[in-house]
Design a protein that fits this description.
Chain lengths: 287, 513
């Protein structure tokens, strides 16, 4: 078992390392300008691709360290705006298991993850949706609860608060609901949350789950009619997803992952469809 | 402790501490109130722009400084300034000793707020902002660069003419301000020794209210509230009595009405043409030159921004033909190919510094446009030089007359030469900024900036090198962004200087130098 992401309920045993790399492709041709859903002939389909190497270490059975450094590329199928590419935000998370108790026909577990991410390059956060990210430091604290039946089916819920800092753009004035005379942009804090229903199969070599996830920002402003997106927009979304993870019986420690998700509703966000796939390789270092 | 407890404790500590690191983002540029470098006592003799003379608009003679009526007003001003709430104190500091700087900032903010192009309708057509029905989408105005430069020009000229009149009456009547009449009156601004009647600040507020309300009709209430706040701050400052404010207000309103009369007949009404006229301008260019510019948006915008802005009445240039640049190199010519190759080379190897410059001067949709950018810069210099309101109004007037004339002359060239943008002329070429909806040659950024730099260099000669360097940087920024060819930028820069020479010639003769 491995700590694949800071928001799942998996822990790697102490002394184990997991290296992972994933590729994701997400695209939208409609987006919400404030609450108005629209297309934009000067964007067409906006595609974002990401290659994300990840590293996870079981410090102990109950404390894991996770790090990631994604590379991204954006492009639009129409219009004159050039896409961009480069390193997005490096991130590091410390995840701990708080409790794990037998309860009824299964086991209840609780986790917390403290994370920090910040830009890994001088990418420009201005000119959304072409920009690679929000360009700000993000300190997050997440709680995760899971109840798993002895047979392998589980229910998981998680919620995390993101305390986001300032991003610097290359203009000394911008307009939100009023003019602001600086190149500093206060990126709104956010809550990300989700629930998942899944199960282990094939002697715990295959895991599959359905999820419903959301993002809710505190504050921020709506994109005005025919304006561009901006890092301090209110950015909300709800999406459904499916995820599977399979440990290849032939090669010890090697696993593959696949995921898909679809945004259902949003505000100042694109209606993304995402597909991703990845490889994981887990091995022991000590113990 | 258990691991989870560590995490929770550490996080709680961080989350409590971090908000303290978050700076408050400035919604205005603060500046310290100051003592004017000069009072320009003879300013009433300067030549106004629209008014026939400083005394074209009359005001009643004030009550005598020794009269009971005036002494009662002084007593009232004394009582008001003696007990200020923190908010009232803050408002006096906000408006400061030179409220033109603040009103210029408000004008720029309004330009930014209204600088959004109409969105397409579901059937692929576009609405046109209608001054007769401003609240119907697309809202009036669309404050694109021609609109913004013209708005700033009328605001500035009205302020300049009003300040000349204010100065003329201040020194004609020479009635003391309350703090001069009674040294026990508490003042909350530096003691600038201008006569009190009429109030320069009230005239500035009245002109701003009239001109900005005409230019941004949907903002009437916001502007009126700002003007009321400004007058309240003046009343409590210890610097003015009520009759100073009343006279300044009526003088400001009368001058603004005269200047706005010019605006109503300057040709702007016809600048945003019908599709038929726009097509005929394009076809004429095609027949004359063998090329034409096209809007490449989807859906296509059928008419570019203000095809007939070049026919709007200028302030200082004798005609657009007098400053019309030479024709651009034909697409496909060796000179064109060299500049096109340069753009491709830059786009492929854009440096961080080039990107920064392109963004710093981008001044595109949702911003106060290049004329606004130069007004902000000019404001900083005026504060630094401790200009009084009259001299500030003069600086804004020549700066913005030059930029409006630059815009008129640039738009004449744009639609006369109807030159394609790089994205149209170079197959597959992409830009890092949005492409404005008007032809390429010459560059508006370059023309506006060169004209602004020339006027500011005339006013602040010791800083001429810096202004010219910025104008060139603004011109280059469009090449870095892929919006313009080098010849658009360089010729635009020359054109802006030529236009400004006429403005500066006018400035030399107004009696202020």
């Amino acid at each position: 078992m491995q700590a694949q992401t800071p928001s799942d309920a998996l822990m790697m045993p102490g002394g184990q390392i997991c290296l992972a790399v994933s590729y994701s492709h997400d695209a939208w041709s409609q987006y919400w300008e404030g609450t108005l859903k629209r297309e934009n002939g000067n964007i067409g389909t906006l595609t974002r691709e990401m290659v994300m190497p990840m590293f996870a270490l079981g410090i102990t059975d109950r404390i894991n360290l996770i790090a990631a450094l994604p590379w991204m590329r954006t492009r639009a199928s129409a219009g004159q705006m050039a896409g961009v590419n480069g390193l997005q935000d490096w991130g590091i998370w410390l995840k701990a298991q708080g409790f794990s108790v037998q309860a009824g026909p299964g086991r209840a577990e609780g986790f917390a993850a403290l994370g920090f991410s910040a830009p890994a390059s001088n990418y420009l956060s201005d000119y959304m949706p072409f920009s690679l990210g929000l360009g700000c430091p993000d300190l997050s604290l997440r709680g995760i609860l899971k109840y798993e039946l002895n047979g392998g089916a589980y229910l998981r819920g998680q919620a995390g608060f993101h305390y986001r800092g300032i991003t610097t753009i290359e203009r000394s004035y911008y307009f939100t609901t009023h003019g602001i005379y600086t190149d500093q942009v206060d990126v709104p804090n956010a809550l990300s949350y989700g629930g998942a229903l899944g199960t282990w199969m094939l002697k715990r070599s295959l895991r599959a789950e359905f999820s419903l996830d959301g993002l809710h920002t505190f504050g921020g402003f709506d994109i005005r009619r025919q304006d561009m997106g901006f890092p301090s927009n209110r950015m909300n979304l709800v999406q459904i997803g499916f995820r599977a993870q399979y440990y290849l019986p032939a090669v010890r420690g090697l696993g593959i992952t696949a995921a898909a998700s679809q945004v259902l509703a949003g505000r100042n966000a694109g209606q993304s469809s995402l597909l991703s796939g990845g490889l994981t390789w887990q091995f022991g270092v000590w113990k | 402790m258990r691991p989870l407890q560590y995490i929770i404790l550490f996080s709680a500590a961080l989350l409590c501490l971090l908000p303290a690191c978050q700076p408050e983002l400035p919604a205005f540029v603060p500046f310290e109130a100051y003592e004017y470098a000069s009072l320009d006592q003879t300013g009433g003799t300067w030549k106004p722009v629209v008014l026939s003379s400083a005394s074209q608009v009359g005001i009643p003679a004030p009550a005598d400084a020794a009269s009971p009526a005036f002494l009662a007003e002084v007593a009232e001003a004394k009582a008001l300034s003696a007990s200020l709430t923190p908010e009232q104190q803050e408002a006096i500091e906000y408006w400061g000793s030179n409220p033109l700087i603040r009103w210029n900032e408000i004008a720029r903010d309004l330009a930014a707020k209204y600088n959004l192009p109409p969105a397409p309708n579901p059937d692929g057509t576009y609405g046109v902002p209608d001054p007769a029905n401003p609240s119907q989408y697309p809202y009036f105005p669309f404050a694109h660069p021609p609109y913004a430069c013209r708005m700033l020009a009328y605001w500035s000229v009205a302020q300049f003419d009003a300040m000349i009149a204010v100065w003329q009456y201040k020194y004609q009547f020479n009635r003391p301000a309350p703090f001069q009449a009674d040294p026990s009156v508490e003042v909350h601004l530096p003691e600038n020794q201008l006569p009190g009647y009429p109030s320069d600040g009230a005239a500035v507020a009245a002109v701003s209210k009239a001109v900005l309300s005409a230019m941004f009709p949907l903002e009437k209430e916001f502007i009126a509230a700002k003007a009321a706040e400004h007058l309240d701050a003046l009343k409590r400052s210890g610097m003015q009595v009520q009759s100073d404010l009343t006279a300044g207000d009526s003088l400001g309103r009368a001058v603004a009405a005269l200047v706005l009369a010019r605006a109503s007949s300057d040709g702007m009404r016809k600048a945003q043409t019908s599709r038929a006229i726009s097509d005929s301008i394009r076809d004429a260019a095609q027949a004359r030159l063998g090329w034409h510019w096209e809007n490449l948006e989807d859906p296509v915008r059928p008419v570019g921004i203000t095809p007939l802005f070049g026919k709007v009445r200028p302030w200082c240039i004798p005609s657009v033909e007098a400053v019309r640049p030479v024709p651009p190199p034909a697409p496909g010519s060796p000179e064109f190919e060299a500049d096109a190759a340069e753009l491709k080379e830059i786009a492929e190897n854009l440096t961080a510094e080039q990107r920064r410059i392109a963004n710093f001067w981008s001044d595109g949709i949702g911003t106060y446009t290049p004329p606004g950018h130069w007004n902000r810069r000019a404001s900083e210099y005026m504060v630094q030089a401790r200009f009084n309101p009259l001299r500030s109004a003069r600086t804004f007037a020549y700066l913005n007359m030059a930029m409006m004339d630059a815009g008129i002359s640039c738009w004449d060239a744009k639609y006369y030469y109807h030159y394609p943008r790089p994205s149209q002329a170079i197959p597959g070429f992409k830009t890092i900024l949005g492409i404005p909806n008007f032809p390429s040659y010459t560059s508006g950024h370059s023309t506006f900036s060169a004209a602004a730099a020339a006027v500011l260099s005339h006013i602040f000669p010791q800083d001429a090198a810096a202004f010219e360097a910025w104008a060139e940087e603004a011109a280059m920024s469009r090449i870095y962004a892929g919006i313009h060819f080098r010849f658009d930028a360089e010729v635009g820069n020359d054109q802006g200087k030529q236009v400004a020479a006429y403005t500066i010639a006018k400035a030399r003769l107004d009696g202020a130098e």
